[in-house]
Amino acid sequence: MKRTMLPKRLLKLVTMSRRQIWYELRANLWFSSIIYAVLALMFTGLSYWLDFHLQLHTYVPAFYETSYQLTHILVSTLISGILTLNAFTFNSTLVVLTTFSGQFSPRLLLSFVSDKRTQHVIGIFNACFLYVLASFFLITENTQMYVAVPAFTVLAALVTLGTFVYFINHAVKWMQVPNMTNYMKLESKRTILRTLLKDLEPYRTKDPRYSREELPDKDSVVIHSEETGFIQIFDYKRLIKKARQDDVTIKLEKRIGDFVTEGLPLMRLWSDKEKKIKEEKYRKLVHMGPKKTEMQDLEFGVNKLTEVAIKAIGNDDPNTANNAIYQLTDLLISISKVTSFTPYLTDTNNQLRIIIKDESFDYYLYAAFSQISTYAVKDPYLTANLLEAVTILSRSIAPENHQCCWDYAASIAWRYNDSFTYNYNSQRFFSSLKGIAEVTGNEEAYEKLSRQIQEKQASAPSVNTSTS
């Protein structure tokens, strides 16, 4: 069957790498539920074989035998019990999560659903109910004594009860703010950093055989988008393979997460040969959708924690905002260690094949903290937390990224537009700023900036008095 004859959703899975397919499957509950449903049907088949074909009751003591009437009552009773327990658990959890996601971030729902413990719990609930339901239709009056069906049914009820307790404990722990922000950070690390480490970083180089300056725009073939949506995935591995086959160089006009409308350029291709380029082959290696995903989008993973911090500030919850800021810091450190921030991707012969949109560490630094700093201009506690986070960041990243840390810290400090209520706030403010200056080698700039801030602080009361 040709790929063009496949449904659009299935075609998307066919053209993805295995890690990308695994991410898509884990983003919903169907995958784990189907696996557990298959296991439940296998246990049902095993019960049928033991009781109807092997006649297990003839090999065990009479103590383990159960009559048809008792088995029927047991199974029919546990069906309604397990179903009621499932409905109560899921309904209560969804109510709590909906409220929690509205308070902090709607992306919490997807993060909770993608958690492997949540997936296993829901799969176990469904499997136990499916087994008991299937067993109910298997038992007949023709077989008067049962062993496997009642034993497995009681076991399913006990597993469901234990899973219920575990699920409540898991949901309560997950919804605690420190755990929640930590889970979101770890999820971003797994889905973003591991994917980029294997799909993108092996092809990065800072010294290709030639650079983009040697590629004139007038000689390029422009490939335009045929649909509207967010760019979710660039299949870099297949793009490089295809570019090598056609002996072309690709320049991506958009980055992951950009919104593209129909007709906008996606990429430019250069070729030394007069071979006709099949644009559709390249267009299929760019996956688009109605929303952003964090499969390859570094910024999306950062923005999740940023949104939690902003919502917490709006709800007058400084501790949650502070926790999100420090988790953002750890995520930025991981990004700086994995990504080399070079736009050149080459094949195995170091031949330039793809030029991606320029990116740098300061881009992600500003994406993480710029919106939060907007709310910190009159909050000494939040400003000091931001400066302390940048201090930790500057001490943990490579020296080439130090200057952008100082520039950003200086802009945060200068934009602070209120007096310090307590001396502790002032000491923490200048201590963090000085620490960044010492790490980044900007001691002279710190002395000048601190004097300017102190002068502004000294002049603020007189300005406010005259105004009043």
From TrEMBL:
Pfam families, alphabetized: DUF2254
Which stretch is the leader sequence? Answer: none
- Keywords, ordered alphabetically: Membrane, Transmembrane, Transmembrane helix
Q: Which residues cross the membrane?
A: 27-50, 70-100, 121-139, 145-168
Q: What is this protein called?
A: DUF2254 domain-containing protein
